[in-house]
Amino acid sequence: MFEGNRVVAHTRARFPIFQSPMTWIARAPLVSAVSAAGGFGLLESTSRDLAMTTREFTAIRAATNAPFGVNLPVRYLKEDPAEERAIIDWLLQQKIHFVTTSAGDPGRYVRILKDAGVVVYHATATLYGARKAVDAGVDGLIVEGAEAAGVRNPEEVHSFALLQAVREAVDVPLVAAGGVVDGRGMAAAFALGAEGVTMGTRFVASVESPVHENYKRAIVAAPSAGTALIDNPPGARMRGLKTPYAEAVLKGEREQLPYKDIIDRLYVNGDVDGTSGAAGESSGLIREIKTAQQIIDDTISSFWSQIDRLAALRPRA
């Protein structure tokens, strides 16, 4: 179905659809469900915890024979060099074949990973970062538009312009992140030069997502302008749902919660109004909670429908 697609060749998945490696969320239940459905699940390692990585990695392999990958967030891992090296060494011992890097310079890991035969994609939100990563030797890029969830630079460019700029500058395969929840968004990303897509918020609102049901329902209920950017010092912002908490923080009426408190209060206990978890602008496009299998199947079906619709515009000779 995707013969010749470089992302599929690199990941060995059936479809070029990634699940974002979201902190606390992208662990065994969700990663294994996405991979088993034909997508490509990515295990997070932001917690910088070898015991967690070992436990979740082993659980994924026990749950499915489908391929999956691991994300290495440079900025967070390098804060503890001993744990950083332990995690990478352990992953290489497991014969991991695909890794994504993010939040920093991929050059820190590229050589050791590629010398071990690992395919490396780097997540970047800028044209400068894309060029730098390719120069460092990565095999592909995850191009994150400013509409994506989580930590963002206030000066980032949205996906429609960013994808075109990166496609013009580099030849490696691109995976589009930000604003994609279905086959329509996937087809648009392909038209702009991508060969795959990453979905985060869409998979947060899935049956297999470990977050509290209240948060899933809040994503489904969010309007098109339902997210807000809260300052995330130093020099960044965090995109999440526009809740009473978020609006109070923006007005300076209350202090921002540490992220670990948001995990406990929102992801575990479902306090939507008193917190604001990571959520992209794509929240306004999500209409229901689905299984990972339904999300993948519906996305692929819709993608080909959109491709057929566009192909029909071409005049017949």
Automatic annotation (TrEMBL):
SUPFAM superfamilies: Inosine monophosphate dehydrogenase (IMPDH). One of its GO terms (molecular function) is nitronate monooxygenase activity. PANTHER family: 2-NITROPROPANE DIOXYGENASE, 2-NITROPROPANE DIOXYGENASE-LIKE PROTEIN. Keywords: Flavoprotein, FMN, Oxidoreductase. It comes from Camelimonas lactis. It holds the Pfam family NMO. This is Enoyl-[acyl-carrier protein] reductase II. InterPro entries: Aldolase_TIM, NMO. It comes from the Bacteria.
